[in-house]
Amino acid sequence: MGISTSNFHYALFLAMAAALFSGGLSVGVNWGTMATHQLPPEKVVQMLKNNGFNKLKLFEAHYKILEALAGSGIEVMLAIPNYMLAEMSEDPDAAATWVDVNVTSYLYSGGVNIKYVAVGNEPLLQAYNGTYVKHTLPALRNIQEALNRAGLGDQIKATIPFNADVYYSPDSDPVPSAGDFRPEIIVGEVGWPTDGNKFANVENAKRFNQGLLQHVLSGKGTPLRSGQINIYLFSLIDENAKSVAPGNFERHWGIFEFDGKPKYELDLSGMTEEKGLIPVEGVRYMAKRWCVLNPDVEDSEELPESIDYACSLSDCTALGYGCSCNHLSVLGNASYAFNMYYQVKSQKKWACDFNGLAMITDQDPSDGTCEFPIMIDYGSSVILHKGLLEILGATVGLCSLLLLILKL
Predict the structure, then answer these.
(1) Could you give the count of Cα atoms lying within 13 Å of 229 in the half-sphere of its Cβ?
(2) Where in the chain is the domain with CATH 3.20.20.80?
(3) 384, pLDDT greater than 80
């Protein structure tokens, strides 16, 4: 796939407006929600509490998640999506309304422990080609001023998340490590994916994250700055609708599977003990049915097009080179693609046809490291976004992925 391993060092630096180094556990976690079927927020919040997470970073401010967080005591960083930055920068009243609806409304006794508001998500990322540059700072000012006017300026601070590329120097005149920030910095995203690339697997992810926790919680800090480092693990749960523009591994950052099952043992205390993470409890699944290639079908000219269609509206990133399902045969690839589409479509009967190429079975076709998942029951999950299937259909890199699938 030609993806650089440097992409895995997914560190996001947050230059904060207030001192952040406090006592106690300094490890938080990112909770992204770009998934077609999601766990009920109240179950996820309970899982966070069961595992001892007391800091949480969100990428939006959805009312269902905020309601679930009420009374939990978990410290929360909300976020304003990039697409809202223009409005926030140009209209102070819009910023004030956002603060009133998403912050002030949840600060009642027993409400949500909101500590920060992230203005955008890496809005100055070089890949955006300056799209948000002129809006980011004015939006930050308007949000902080809105917090100040609401009497919250001393307890809640607005900040801007930066990608590590802010440290990059021009090739024509490189000056390594010339970037200069205030000392109060949080590492907002750091982790290792488990699939979607030959270097992305459970073993590497466990080794990286456990070593990270051990060092961070030791209090040793870095050669330049001793003491605890505040970090947010990236991420909590896999997201099957994320863009794969940076790489197919983007959908596999979670330390938990899409259904809240831990992927590996991880000692959050940093003591490197073989402690298992506590899963989400009470998850309801759809029926034990899978969609596979009809064994009666012989070579069909329609098969490549059908696989292309199924993958464009689901998630076939596990079929890539070096990934968990790369060992499947061409026929196995077809079954995997059909099943992913079938599950994303909530096991609708019409979603397992493909002009007679597919059939429904109650026999689990999972093979070794390759799991054919069954989706979370639609009635027990919650859709927090609109247009996720459109996002899936527009993901970058689909053509190259399908070449791998078909092994052409």
Answers:
(1) 25
(2) 5-251
(3) no
Q: What is the pLDDT, as a whole number, of residue 393?
A: 42
CA atoms within 13 A on the CB side of 175: 5
Q: What is the pTM assigned to this prediction?
A: 0.87
pLDDT band of residue 379 (cuts 50, 70, 90) is low
Res 133 pLDDT > 60: yes
- Closest C-alpha among 129, 221, 135 to residue 183: 221
Q: Which of 84-88, 112-116, 215-219, 295-299 has the lowest mean pLDDT?
A: 295-299
Q: Which listed residue (122, 145, 298, 302) is catalytic?
A: 122
Catalytic hit among 60, 189, 239, 250: 189
Distance (Å, whole) CA 123 – CA 143: 15
Residue 183, amino acid: P
Mean pLDDT of the chain: 87
Give the tokens for residue 207.
């080794």
pLDDT of 383 higher than 50: yes
Please tell me the class of the 5-251 domain: alpha beta
42 counts as catalytic: no
Residue identified by tokens 């899936």 is 392
Annotation marks residue 189 as catalytic: yes
